[in-house]
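Supplementary notes for students who missed Thursday's class. We covered one full example, reproduced here. Read the sequence, then the structure, then the short commentary at the end.
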Amino acid sequence: MPIDINLADCLDLAAELRADDEALIQGPRRIRWSELRRRAHNLGRAMLDAGASPQAKVALYTYNHPAYMEGCYAAMAAGLVPFNVNYRYREEELHYLLDNADTELVVVHEEFVPRLEHIAADLPKLRGYLVASDGHDPDLGTLRGARSYEQAAECDGAPLAAQRTPDDQLFLYTGGTTGMPKGVMWRQGDLYFRLAGGGVGPAPASIEELRAFIAEQRVELSTLIGPPLMHGTGWFTALIAWLAGGSVVLLEDPHHFSPQMLFATIERERPTALTIVGDSFAKPMLRELRDGGRSYRLDSLRLISSSGVIWSEEAKQGLLEYCPGAMLIDSFSSSEAIGMGASITTAQGVVRTGKFQLGERTRLFDENLQPLATAPGVKGLVGVGGQQPLGYYKDSDKTARTFVEADGKRYSIPGDWAQVNDDGKTLTLLGRGSVCINTGGEKVFPEEVEEVVKKFPGVHDSVVVGVPDEKWGEAITAVVSTFTPVDTTSLVAFVKEHLAGYKAPKHVVFVAQVFRSPSGKADYKHTRQVALAELARSGASS
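Structure (token representation):
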């Protein structure tokens, strides 16, 4: 049996064994493991001093900044529950999220303090804020209980002696079928098992094995995180590096991704692993490598991993031209189910896009969530067993629909369809059974966007779909009927006022009447066909 451990206890052990090695790097900022442990324990004490209750929820509301990972460590060390906040959310979305999570504390970058000021009075459970900045004293605004993050981290207190167990939780917020975020509740002992082996390999079975596992890691073990830490791909990959006693490297400018900055960081820091999100990262990287006018030294990379979106075979083959010694791993996982499968590509062999290895705990289910026999040609919903989340926070109905018992075992079934290939050992992904749009790794639910579009003056009705897009994977497209002429630019700007910018339509198609069934349900299939035809006619499709 794998070791059952609180994540902070594992990080404390890594700090003991790797004290002088670098744990967190961002530009000129370099934090060693011994310093990381001291700062995290100081921050955890500040959270408790603010009046946090046992297993209080701590929001991580910042860009890719040291405060995100330090704040996560601090919350766990204090026996609290860290969770991610999408920093693109506007006030309405942010209020819902913090209220749904019963948030008591917020680790926040000062840039987002004004948003919190607008909603804090309506969130009576909030007890305090640790405000991070970029190298100067932060502006605390008018938030009651606000404190400088850096001052709290450097207060030089004794090691924190908070009660913590493997049953402590970590929340990963993701979108729900209604378009509202849902908190996926991970028990830390279970999450350690999934992450210690990267969702694939075995986790240590004892403290002795764990000590050896961390102590034997080479000093240069390091992972460069490309995507935002607020998403599971970035956050959990960073935790994997830390749980092995390695280092996490963040891009110096977290506001804007550029392949030039990425490659410069690789040349400077020499990471052994890179995490991206499919073609939204890979294709700009390839354009720079092929047309940028200079060569880059990328030979330190042994692993490039992606999760969240399918990674095209074309992009994989292109990257292997410049990183022939790297292994490319396309993980088939979700917030609700880690370890469903992986596609592994090297210079010696390329696995077709969408084809994943069946894991020993992976099986297929029918639409009634009944298990199917694993045989060539069988199609079904993918379920994965073993250590998985406890469920969704404050949503027992959705928990019951996603986490099911079969043959005496519990499985997570997040909604992905797949078919067993002729070899009986691999799966080909067929897509989500829902109409969820995946744009640049962000999951967007049409209903949420539709409701905002329909509020715009002059709009009669709207159905929102995703259409293929080279850069984003899928581009959000609003098909709209109107009472009076509507200006497209103003409509898109209106959506951005109410929702995160990535949820705003990239295309708007006007029709006389949107397409719905007699019962009033949106006809997404027909809508998408019409949208594709109109975009092709107008030359707007990618």
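Commentary. The longest strand covers residues 459-469. DSSP finds 16 helices and 28 strands in the chain. If anything here is unclear, bring it to office hours.
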